[in-house]
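Notes from the pairing session

We agreed to fold both candidates in a single pass and log them together. This is the raw record for the first candidate, unedited. Please don't reformat it; downstream parsing expects exactly this layout.

Candidate A
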Amino acid sequence: MGRDRGGVGLCRQQPARWNLRLQFEQQLAGIWRSLLGLERVGRDDRFFELGGDSLTAMRTVTRIEALTGVRLTLRQLVSGSLGTLAEHVVESCRPRAAWDS
């Protein structure tokens, strides 16, 4: 289950909710590009459909936690698109962010 573990990074920032999601989508796409060796990754892409495997999924989850402090399960990583995952992380950051700004 995704939980904020007090990490530095995006969960500690205070931007508007949509801005936080956009920032995270961009950073998540960068993580996927780097680990999967791809030039382009979009909001509707899915991890395994892009060629991800279980070992790379574990590395990805570790990088996301380091970036945000949010702990994800492998199921959360692979069950939706990049955009869905970004929204989940933003929702997990909710207690730390000022959503009404």
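Candidate B (folded immediately after A)
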Amino acid sequence: MDRNNEAKLKADLIVAEAMQKPDREGYPKLTEEHPFFGRLRYFMADKSHWLGTATDLLNAINDTATPPNTVTKLLNKFSIDLYFSDGIDVHFRRTNRKKIIELYRYRRSEKRE
């Protein structure tokens, strides 16, 4: 395989990954079954509030496999499901340089409707 074909295949893979088309072998799919959510649910079980960046959250839940940008993608994509299934409300806000994630955990009786 020559360099041009190699470069084109690499570029195609990068674009496909960005568009979430194929899932590479060994990487979890970006679904509500992603391992990150199990760790997040366990982490928030005894908390009512948490605030920090995606990197802070990954460190807090001891997740070394999930990249920070995947955390924000997952939380954006599944925030409604997370709220209705587990009572975890997700909010994002920006400071000058950081995207802050704010998590609230509501018990069934105190959920906002």
